[in-house]
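In this supplementary section we document a worked example of the pipeline. Step one takes a protein sequence of length 176 as its only input; no multiple sequence alignment statistics are reported here. Step two produces a three-dimensional model, which step three serialises into structure tokens for compact storage. The input and output of this example are shown verbatim.
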Amino acid sequence: MSRLLSQAADHIEHNAIYAALYMNDIAKSWRWSIYLHRPNKSHSGFRLQITDARSPGSGQWEYTISPHSALQSSTISTLVKIGQVADPSWGVEFLDVYLRPIQLGQVPAADRQREGKFDERVWFREAVRRLRDAGMFLACPDVDALEMELMSYARLGDQLMHPTFSVSKRAWPFSL
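The serialised model returned by step three reads:
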């Protein structure tokens, strides 16, 4: 592990919810996902995301949750804390309850005026709204501002050729 990643590992919080953007060659964009840091012996957490199940551009979306070690990823551009699962006994299944029902392939009502098609970024935006509306994971009054903040961190990480790690100014802190 590089010195940078080693330093980041010291600041990644147990049960914290992160926005994780990964490099993607398609049109200089990123793969957007939610990462829950819950370390155990085999991995450091869980990646919640959608993927184009058949091939890029097919529009056949699939929602997945997979064990993942974000700090070991060679393609991560940025990892930004956006929330927290307050109860240490709660696992990834509590996030899944809110994210699995997102309708894949359809632009959510909140984004219909600004988005022409459904993709990973649009899914991520709806995921943030769902977790915010649950009232117990994160606070994000402005999803557009959060998206811009994350894109600026990802661009910086890509330009520096190493990932950026931060705490969102738009979605955190959250208090009950």
